[in-house]
Amino acid sequence: MSLRRALRSCHATSRPHVLAAVTWLWLAASALGQGQPTDWVRARVLEQRLGHAVVWDAARERLMLFGGDRVADTWEWDGICWTRRSPVTRPPARVGQAMAYDSGRRRVVMFGGRAIDGVPIADTWEWDGSDWTQRLPATSPPAGTGHAMGYDSVRQRVVMVGGTSFRQAWEWDGANWTQFAGLGPYPSDRSGHALAYDTQRRRFVLFGGADGSGMLADTWEWAGGWSQRSPTLAPPARADHAMAYDPARQRVVLFGGVDDQVWEWDGTRWTHPTPATSPSARSGHAMGYDMVRQRVVLSGGIDGGDSERSDTWEWDGANWNQRAPNLGPTRRSGAALAFDGIRQRTLLFGGLQESPDSTSAGDTWEWDGASWTQQAPATSPGARDGHAMAWDAARQRAVLFGGQVSSGQIGAFCCYADTWEWTGSNWIRAVPTASPPGRAGHAMAYDAMRQRVVLFGARRTPAGGPLADTWEWDGANWIQRTPALSPSPRGGHAMTYDGVRQRIVLFGGGYSTNFSDTWEWDGATWTLRAPASSPAARSGHALAYDGVRQRVVLHGGRGGPNLVFADTWEWDGTNWTQRTPATSAGAVAGPAMAWDAIRQRIVMVGETGTWLYGPLTPATTQTIGAACPGSNGLPVLSSGEPYLGNPGFSLELLSARPSSVCAFFLADRQQSRDLGGGCTAYVDGAIVMVPALSNTFGFATTRLAVPLNIALRGAQLFAQAMVVDPLGPVGGLAFSAGRSLVIGD
Question: Which of 585, 531, 533 shows the shortest CA–CA distance to 556?
């Protein structure tokens, strides 16, 4: 039996997730690698955020999230995992926007917010499940934040109230905004309040916020006009909390702001449940209601320690359940990365967390090529930044030395002189008989030829000034080397090992002034190189060695108090060449980089999040041809991004006949065969056929998680969908257009 026939027969008895595994195995056997230009891509991790918004997309049966602090990304929660969408068009980054789902038009409507630069926005956008469209109405509400929107299903209008002023309300009919004024009294002008729409009672509920007098604890309702409610019991005064309406239990649920309390409003009184578990106290989070799983979902925010969050919780009316932990380390500088060659994970420790009050971190994370997992070792180095770390391949340990607790914090300290080793599950403190003096801002790299971890220099020491000393770690002790020639005293430099030329490469750094020099260590002496071109003088940059392309890669750094670099350079052993990738990883000071030898990508973590660099194969989708109509219009086939390691990749069919049998076809070949009635077959020799049933909105989906297997990189698959429809032009069938899927990064 041929492989294709075997796959077809497998379908009859396989569940969807098994079917997906077989499909991807076939792709791995057939995929051909293709050379691609080097580029940066942001890792698809739901980063910590606050000020974002979530709303329930009833047609597609999932929560949709947009934006937050400094980001303009779109995510969906299906009750299992968050999946990032990649629309062709996207709104600018913002916080404090309002969103609601227009079930009549099957669109998410978004208005306003505040841009990254703090300027209020007054734009209107709609999300149709696959792309954003900016609407340009003749009239529009004024720019601002703190609004709330709800859909009035009787009048088929999106209603928006609030902002910093409550003296007006607006309606969106799908084409234009119309203002109407309600009768007073009005809530006082305020910020940091929360609003939710009670669909059963058809009114907005407002609680709290802050005005010139401080935080508030008042309850108001709007149903064409405002009325203040006076319950005997109410939550304590608070601001920057979140609320969502639970239609199954007919309660408005409130959480956070100043504490970890949950409160519920039934239209008459507030009650205060006391769950056994709870999210940490936080503000700036977002909440929405999952209609399928009948849970209030909470996402992100910033906790009492000024750390932004990316965790996900669900409230079932009695208890909170954590569905996803923090999905990655906080944005930070001065962290350390090393690739664990045994466990095939990139290890991160510590760094200076970016938050309103920057704090040194003491957390340990691992990156598997697709997602971060926070580790919980029994023992650990203390919180720090400015330390250094390298993977000792001979002894199969990550080695960490030194660091500081940056000034401005409680417990600020300079500097550690401790040596730690990571075993893959725990940190163990080494006790060498000799050790370098305490320091921060030094650099380390592993010399694979001589099987030594090499340390050079420092920006800070307990004595104050920079250092220019060279040390080697042999797994038991530190040995100071005394070469005849060394780089000048400095800190904030970066080092990495060039595996082909068997040299440790050092670039830049500084103290009172920055350097642009390139040095190499051969195990005995330092040699100053004289390239024809070189990056500008800097410190706080990162270096890593691309083991496939045999290049040292440099990114970022600081050139002065007000100059942060966003450039990328490569060193070939003779010269530096500036690269011009299509995507920039952004200006970043104090990033950390490591080479992932298994997935053949450089991993960078810094103040702009997690990034990957290398010869990238873009994960792409493209529509092929045209659909033929059924009773609900033209069936539309869309999909998520087919990137390596995507656990939530799915094919989706919109505008199918409601509550009808559908099918998704996947094939390795494309065709264009006329089926009659204006319909065309775009897949040839379908490997698999996945049945599905459309919901009452005419939406159907199937999940096909993409494995994290680099053999799939560049593989192409073709898809098409069909729906059983009495008005379908081909024997009671209607067909979508085709879709090309290229698996990539």
Answer: 585
Dig out the tokens for 315 from the structure. Answer: 């409230």
Would you tell me how many other CB atoms lie within 10 Å of the CB of residue 139? Answer: 9
R_g over Cα of the chain: 28
User: Given the structure tokens 């309406």, which residue do they identify?
Assistant: 245
* Residue 387: Cβ within 10 Å count: 27
52, 66 in Cβ contact below 8 A?
yes
CB 600 within 8 A of CB 711: no
Do 160 and 124 contact (CB within 8 A), yes or no?
Answer: no
- Contact (CB, 8 A) for 626 and 636: no
Q: How far is CA 307 from the centre of its chain?
A: 16
Write down the pLDDT at residue 355.
65
Contact 286, 295 (CB under 8 A): no
569 burial (CB, 10 Å; 0-12 / 13-18 / 19+) is buried
CA 553 to CA 496: how far, in whole Å? 9
Does residue 624 surpass a pLDDT of 80? yes
Phi and psi at 29, nearest 5°, equal -75, -25
- Indicate if the pLDDT at residue 86 is higher than 90: no
Q: Are 301 and 285 in contact (CB under 8 A)?
A: yes
Q: Is the dihedral of CA 325, 330, 336, 341 positive or negative?
A: positive
Look up residue 710 and give its DSSP letter: G
Residues 617, 360 contacting (CB under 8 angstroms): no
Determine the residue type at 648. Answer: G
Alpha-carbon distance of 242 to 244, in angstroms, equals 7
- Give me the helices (H) in 230-375, please: none
Name 448's Cβ contacts closer than 8 Å, sequence gap at least 6. 393, 497, 499, 502
The backbone torsions φ and ψ at residue 25, rounded to the nearest 5 degrees and listed phi first, read: -60, -40
- In this structure, what are the phi and psi dihedrals at residue 17, rounded to the nearest 5 degrees? -70, -30
Closest CA to 178 of 152, 199, 202: 152
Which of 118-122, 123-127, 134-138 comes out lowest in average pLDDT? 118-122
Residue 535 DSSP code: P
CB 244 within 8 A of CB 296: yes
The answer to whether the beta carbons of residues 434 and 479 sit under 8 Å apart is: yes
For the chain, the distance separating the N- and C-terminal CA atoms, rounded to the nearest angstrom, is 33
Question: What are the beta bridge partners of residue 564?
Answer: 558
CB contact set of 580 (below 8 Å; sequence gap of 6+):
none
Q: Which residues pair with 637 in a beta bridge?
A: 653
pLDDT band for position 685 (cuts 50, 70, 90): confident
Give pTM, 2 decimals.
0.88
256-263's contacts with Cβ under 8 Å and 24+ in sequence apart are: 256/281, 256/282, 256/283, 256/285, 256/301, 257/192, 257/194, 257/208, 257/283, 258/215, 258/283, 261/235, 261/236, 262/315, 262/320, 263/235
Three-state DSSP class for 114? strand
